[in-house]
Fold each of these.
Amino acid sequence: MEIAEKVRTNFEFAGCDTVELAKEYGTPLYVVSEEKIREQCREITQSFLKKHQNTKATYASKAFLTLAMCKIIEEEGLGLDVVSGGELFTAVHADFPMEKIVFHGNNKSYEEIYMAVSHGVGRIVVDNSHELDMLEDITNELKRTVKILFRVSPGVKGETHEYILTGQKDSKFGIPLEGDGILQVVKKATNSQFLKLMGFHFHLGSQLFDKNAYILAIKALTNLMKELKDKLSYETQELNTGGGFGIYYTNGDKPKSIAYFTDAIMEELKIQCNSLQHTVPSVVIEPGRWIIGNAGVTLYTIGAVKEIPNVRTYVSVDGGLPDNPRPALYKAKYEAVIANKNNQPRDRVVTIAGKCCETGDILIWDLETPEINSGDILAVLSTGAYNYSMASNYNKLPKPAVVLVNKGKSDLIVKREKYEDLIRRDIIPKHLL
Ligand SMILES: Cc1ncc(COP(=O)(O)O)c(C=O)c1O
Ligand SMILES: N[C@@H](CCCC[NH3+])C(=O)O
């Protein structure tokens, strides 16, 4: 009877009782649903890869990367987009197939490029001519051929928070379409002995809901392709259209299927290529958030509850800004439930505060809840993307553990940090001993 009652009232995620998870692994705790990740990957396979010929999908690992995640992505047959030596190192340690890695970044170091070339990654997306020069030196030294794309900034402004917008003209990412910068680098790459220029890449931004920005970018890119064909007899073979597909966080977010974006991309590409008499290149997409965002929840234990009469009630949790900087950075909004009171009527509005010495450390400004007591468990929803991967140790808070859940079972995939981990790399110089 007691167990039946618990099952009814506690918040379940991937068949697991989240209150039990909090007890077993402690809080704060990142919880990730394996089935949800696989479901998203399979939608990409069914509605994009199998529907349209000559297509590939890579998971943008910056959204959430662990060794276990690499294994799931590999099993689902997707590639991996990495953006740093650290992300590549993780993929290498997970034995991820290197030919399925796409290496990005707007300021890759010599060491990172060297590492990528030595490991034989499938593509390097070159962001600027400085990088192109380094890549030429490295491939000449190692005598290894590397397939590259150039990242361009298509001059298209999607609708999202300005900090996660990337495809506009005024952006640090990519080579501008204006001027002859592109012509110069294409000439250089096509004359290079070890570089094989496959085509171009753009990424418009993140948490986008409208296909129109992608359509505009395809128009800009196909015009570039035509220009390069006419002026340099260079034929683009591959177009990487980035990620950015939006997900549900709160009321008002209207997420779309992957096909909503990819059908539009493919259709526009075919129309433009036909009219410009250019062969249709292969197409790569690289979603991050769309795959992992809704697959994660974060569990916290509620501590202090402070009511300021006629102002608001602050409910503080044992994590906050260090495990989820998104509300502070982008004013990101989240939904949440009191996991141990999931079925109780929500008759009040509270503010969920983190435990950092930072006024801006507020996870949710207005959350409808039942009566709250210290010791209750808060589950913040849709925290799979850019939470664990953006976590810090601010205020020397140890990073939470990550648990993978599936059909009622749970596995620890990242251990909780200990206090010892926080000072592991500190050194006291002799004169201070
Ligand atoms: C080059 C590139 N590709 C893919 C992504 C993935 O973006 P999202 O997680 O919004 O799909 C990003 C991040 O915005 C990116 O910078
Ligand atoms: N970190 C951002 C997404 C940026 C993706 C990288 N270009 C977010 O949390 O929404």
Amino acid sequence: MPEEIGYLGPEGTFTEMAVMELFPGSQLKQFATIFDCLEAVDDKTVDYGVVPLENTIEGSVNMTLDYLCHQSSISIVGELTLPIRQHLLIHPNYKDRWHEIEEVHSHPHAIAQAHEFLRRNLPGAKLVHTTSTGKAAKLVKETDERVIGAIGNELAATHYGLAIASSDIHDYENNHTRFVVLTKEGKTLSKKDALVGHKVTLQITLPSDYPGALYQVLAAFAWRKLNLSKIESRPMKTGLGNYFFIIDILSEPDNVLLQGVKNELEALGTAVKVLGEYPCYSVEHKVE
Ligand SMILES: O=C(O)C(=O)C[C@]1(C(=O)O)C=C[C@@H](O)C=C1
């Protein structure tokens, strides 16, 4: 049976752009929400899932992080970073009337990425959250009795036959999103081009709150000269002030120094869960 790839749909999402780059020509299955996609990987309805993990402007996608940390035994087997260009999309019937837009629909991350543009250009418009930018574009296509807009990409504009009323409306030029490939079954990703490095992502839970606990964790990486690219705390959901840490390390697979870190941390009573050891890819061009 051909492998099936789950992703955040419908057609025209940024996640679909990532999937087209990572799994060209594969059998795809769309999910309405990130959670549904994660669950499908977990219960093996699909072989791989592709979901967003982090954006330059908006930070982490907590749904993805929390699922990986709290609920599952699925792991990260790859990462793709894509440039994110947000456009204001409108029904073609209203293409010259975008200043009259009453509502702007999009994924909360996309709305946040264009906050300044919306404040300046459409201060009276109601902002409506959708499960994805593709969903918002589809809604605009289906609504021709009112002037509404969506924030989304050029793939959605083409797919739904929408006009681009204003292009590149994201507030910061350097707008990128990291997408991760997840799997349940020890599968690996074998993309050949666009490789930019390797990472290991660890979930670290301190034994208890004592002075210098995090410092001790970081020291284990520091004296081995292991380069961290991200550290983030997330609530354990057991009480205020209880956090665990998610740490990304720029490291080749099977690095013996990392095994040393794990042994040292575990000896200190710190729990270490490996969320993934994976290749990282990056593309700057648009996927047509
Ligand atoms: O809605 C989409 O198109 C998505 O793929 C989701 C998502 C996100 O969750 O951040 C992905 C990239 C962009 O940052 C905006 C939205």
